[in-house]
Inverse folding.
């Protein structure tokens, strides 16, 4: 399912991808820019959904495509081009979280936002609720539910266990359900 | 009977069968409240996927291109003076050693620091060599390029290793830093050999 999605997205974003990649491998700057223009928005979108600030997301965008330009000769075409770029972007975004050392433990998160009567009358839209999740939880939700990564893959990128990824996903959905004011089973 | 937890409902979306999955599915079939919760979960994920794409506020391409060009210039300068036979010998040595894959057990921060220090010293040695004015043959450039590519790959794995749990991370960091030192050693060797060949 993931492969079908990435392939269709790739052909939609970049016509004649094979030719562009071949020229990019030779260092053709026009081809490298074509790659950037084709995947700029999905890479930034992924980065922005994971990172806390627009500045961090733009830095991840820059780091991702610098890496793409450096490594395109080593791209083996074993998966889709978008899948390859997306994995670089996800790794850079997760690295950014780690480097920034966001204080992201659940305990602290509850301490900071737990006083906002989240369990009572607050209804949020999905965008705001997603933004409000702790960074790691938000990253897991986005990578798993939207980008289609498995828990094993997420665990590998985060240096954690699949159980950690599953647990973060479940907690995140419990929170989203509360914040969105969805009915809770009694 | 108690309803399914959010953990169980989230897990039911996964392919494969974990312990308890069959019983959970049986409950889901029989319980309208849990089915409604499961449906809400699916709808929430569908809404996440339908969120509008966010776009960067600035065009980052000029900056990226500037960095790419700058790196190319540095690379050309670095490879310009590499001696062909020496480079081949050095690369063969690096490839032939085959010790980089061995896991490091009980890596200490001091060992990692030592390897990092050695790597930095070798980087400095490479920077001091200025082969910009020299001409190099294609074979030499290819070999040197491969060494440089392998160093870049190690750098990427070093970044990834930073995300690992501490014990595994330290062992991996030590292994990668040592691999990096080996590759840099090879580059320095070919530069030094090239310099002595031309009587510098």
């Amino acid at each position: 399912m993931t492969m079908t999605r990435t392939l269709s997205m790739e052909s939609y974003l970049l016509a004649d991808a094979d030719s562009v990649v071949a020229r990019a491998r030779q260092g053709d700057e026009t081809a490298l820019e074509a790659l950037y223009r084709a995947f700029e928005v999905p890479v930034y979108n992924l980065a922005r959904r994971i990172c806390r600030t627009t500045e961090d997301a733009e830095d991840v965008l820059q780091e991702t495509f610098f890496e793409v330009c450096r490594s395109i000769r080593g791209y083996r075409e074993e998966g889709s081009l978008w899948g390859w770029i997306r994995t670089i972007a996800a790794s850079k975004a997760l690295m950014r979280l780690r480097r920034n050392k966001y204080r992201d433990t659940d305990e602290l998160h509850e301490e900071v936002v737990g006083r906002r009567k989240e369990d009572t009358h607050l209804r949020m839209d999905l965008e705001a609720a997603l933004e409000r999740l702790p960074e790691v939880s938000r990253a897991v939700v986005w990578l798993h539910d939207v980008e289609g990564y498995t828990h094993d893959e997420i665990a590998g990128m985060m240096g954690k266990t699949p159980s950690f990824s599953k647990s973060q996903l479940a907690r995140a959905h419990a929170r989203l359900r509360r914040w969105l004011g969805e009915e809770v089973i009694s | 009977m108690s309803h399914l937890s959010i953990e169980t409902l989230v897990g039911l979306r996964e392919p494969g069968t974990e312990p308890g999955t069959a019983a959970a599915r049986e409950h889901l079939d029989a319980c309208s409240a849990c089915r409604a919760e499961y449906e809400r979960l699916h709808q929430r994920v569908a809404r996440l996927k339908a969120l509008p794409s966010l776009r960067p506020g600035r065009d980052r391409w000029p900056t990226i291109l500037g960095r790419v060009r700058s790196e190319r210039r540095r690379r050309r300068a670095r490879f310009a003076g590499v001696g062909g036979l020496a480079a081949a010998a050095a690369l063969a040595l690096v490839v032939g050693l085959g010790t980089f894959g061995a896991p490091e057990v009980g890596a200490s921060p001091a060992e990692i620091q030592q390897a990092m220090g050695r790597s930095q010293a070798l980087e400095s040695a490479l920077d001091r060599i200025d082969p910009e004015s020299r001409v190099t043959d294609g074979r030499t450039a290819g070999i040197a390029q491969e060494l440089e590519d392998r160093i870049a790959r190690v750098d990427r794995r070093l970044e990834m290793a930073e995300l690992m749990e501490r014990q595994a991370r330290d062992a991996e960091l030590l292994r990668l830093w040592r691999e990096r030192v080996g590759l840099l050693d090879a580059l320095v060797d070919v530069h030094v050999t090239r310099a002595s060949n031309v009587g510098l």
In short: The two ends of chain A are 35 Å apart (CA to CA). Chain A touches chain B through 54 residues (CB under 8 Å). DSSP finds ten helices and no strands in chain A.
